């Protein structure tokens, strides 16, 4: 999820489980560890957006590697904690010099980061280096204030009311329980939306080979549902777990041919296909500038209510007069024309319509 949420989750874990031993230092270290996995953007500095897509949520998000990464981080945290407790206003606690206490804090704050990311549609390589598969549970939006705000509120309370230790630990525990239940509700709603789409498609001439349900922005009530058949055709619509109306489906063809094969066969195309879990729609068109051929690959898992064919993620592949690939760049369709307020209004209307 977003950076603020990951920081708040790590801090809340430190506050709930370790503040009785480490004081407010547990909140600080938990927040830092909650942030650290997303520092993997450093791996792609100086490269293009495809390199970032290929490396983000990779090694730094592996549940197999994070227990090892936690060892040096915990040692540094322990040294910092012992140094901080050498001042008169920070009396040393009995656990400050215990490495095992710091290790548990760092491990839980680190490993819950990819586990939370797993619930989003973006995908997370939790089994790197044994597998580079992107796992996803499609249970929550990358940004969801209902999940985040209770965690943030609990952490702020713990920082401004440090003397009320039992109370601010209770706030943190309550926030973690609420957020966990919210994730469970998101999973339930995702399965519900997916089942609704499958049931509706069963009465139509569309035999899906893959069906996905992804939350729209900031909520777990309205879901973008996508089905793909063996011919590469897509059926896309939106399902409200509140209104529960019939899904209005939009159908899109995916083109094929030499240019599409070249785009998919390029390094950038392979990254997009892997990232999208093969939910790519291909379109061939002519450039508005000089009429040269172009291929657009669109990740159909993501999109907007005002234009179901538009997506956050995709690629634009350009060809020269000899039909050789001359360039590739990230492409987000009409995202740049998005009026944020209009999209939010549309989501709200579709939830209750």
Q: Which helices and strands, and how do they pair?
A:
Layout: H1 3-17, H2 19-22, H3 25-35, H4 49-55, H5 66-84, H6 99-117, H7 145-160, H8 165-201, E1 208-215, E2 222-229, E3 234-240, E4 250-252, H9 258-265, H10 267-275, E5 280-286, E6 293-299, E7 314-319, E8 325-330, H11 340-352
Antiparallel strand pairs: 1-2, 2-3, 3-4, 5-6, 6-7, 7-8
Regions with little confidence, pLDDT below 50 for 5+ residues: 87-92
How many strands? 8
Question: Order of strands across the widest beta sheet?
Answer: 1-2-3-4
Question: End-to-end span in angstroms?
Answer: 28 Å
Individual helix count: 11
* Helical content class: 40-55%
Order of helices and strands: HHHHHHHHEEEEHHEEEEH
Radius of gyration computed on alpha carbons: 23 Å
Largest sheet: 4 strands, antiparallel
User: Strand fraction band?
Assistant: 5-15%
**Overall 3D form:** globular
Task: Determine the structural class based on helices, strands and strand pairing.
Answer: alpha+beta
Mean pLDDT: 90
